[in-house]
Design goal:
By secondary structure, the protein is an alpha+beta fold. It folds into two domains: 164 residues, Ribosomal Protein S5, domain 2; 116 residues, 2-Layer Sandwich (Alpha-Beta Plaits). It has nine helices and ten strands. Helix 1 packs parallel to helix 2 and helix 5 packs across helix 7. It is globular. The two termini are 35 Å apart. The model has no long low-confidence stretch (mean pLDDT 93). Keywords: ATP-binding, Isoprene biosynthesis, Kinase, Nucleotide-binding, Transferase.
Length: 298
């Protein structure tokens, strides 16, 4: 297995930022089974990293804290699916490639790790192969890989509706100091949705002309994650994780996506770093990461 940080040595590199659901409202369900969602999404300045190099034959290598978990994933890995799907579209331009994934985010943890990896693969391979696609065609391609992939292609603050494909950029959303926390307990997304008691909840509604961290923090606090109660029922550690973040001074703590990752918003970066260190000391077997989200103005 390659050493940590090998992605730095590759000719083309891409960041796969952690996707944070600041709010997630389940507003309905389509006839095909897909749930309708309203999501307030931002992206953290941490995540996985990918490197890309021309090769004699396709190669996929892994490193990072959670790399071994994916080692037996084979053709189901979203990175490989993204490579193969893009290759079908671009044809002869798509020479063999060595892709290296530095897997720093927990697997299936509600922060878009696999989707972010797929989006980064699309971006990186287009650069390596020297090609581009129209925005609409690329978004359609991304949606075939998963409902979260179009959002991760954007990797900036946004509101997403429908199944995730209706995206509206949020230029006024500020950056937040944050701690990501995960008890490293598996959460089944289908099971969380199965436990969801109501699937026609009120839509996300934000006041117009929100400005400043205080106003946005109040708006986020007034919103919710409809998947958190059923996820807490399935994995009690989620409630404990949120409580630990609040005990360390988080201004707000909530689960992201379908879990089990929770985020805590802190007053500043120093407070987030201090909290992450204390939490890691208390539970060294869990995942804690101090970070900062990116602002809508980038």
């Amino acid at each position: 297995m390659p050493e940590e940080g090998l992605a730095d040595a590759f000719g083309v590199t891409e960041e796969a930022r952690a996707k944070i659901n600041l709010a997630l409202h389940v507003t309905g369900q389509r006839a095909d089974g897909y749930h309708l969602l309203d999501m307030l999404v931002t992206f953290a300045d941490c995540g996985d990293r990918l490197g890309f190099l021309p090769a004699q034959a396709d190669v996929f290598t892994l490193s990072g804290r959670f790399g071994e978990t994916l080692a037996g994933d084979g053709g189901t890995n979203l990175v490989l699916r993204a490579r193969d799907l893009l290759r079908e579209v671009v044809g002869g331009l798509a020479f063999p490639v060595h892709i290296h994934l530095e897997k720093n985010l927990p697997i299936a943890s509600g922060i878009g790790g696999g989707s972010a990896d797929a989006a980064a693969t699309l971006r990186g391979l287009m650069r390596l192969w020297g090609m581009s696609l129209p925005v609409e065609a690329l978004a359609s391609l991304a949606l075939k890989l998963g409902a979260d992939v179009p959002m991760c292609l954007e990797s900036r603050p946004l509101i997403a509706r429908g199944i995730g494909e209706q995206i509206e950029a949020l230029r006024d959303l500020p950056a937040f100091a944050m701690v990501l926390a995960n008890p490293l307990k598996g959460v089944s997304t289908p099971e969380v949705f199965r436990r969801l008691k109501a699937k026609d909840n009120p839509a996300l509604s934000l006041a117009p002309n929100l400005h400043g961290r205080g106003a946005w923090l109040a708006a986020i606090a007034a919103a919710r994650n409809d998947l958190e109660p059923p996820a807490r029922d399935a994995v009690p550690e989620i409630a404990a994780t949120a409580a630990m973040l609040l005990a360390q001074g988080a201004l707000l703590a909530r689960m992201s996506g379908s879990g089990a990752t929770c985020f805590g918003i802190f007053a500043d970066t120093a407070a987030a770093q201090q909290a992450a260190a204390a939490l890691h000391e208390a539970r060294p077997d869990w995942y804690f990461q101090a970070t900062e989200t990116i602002s809508g103005g980038m």
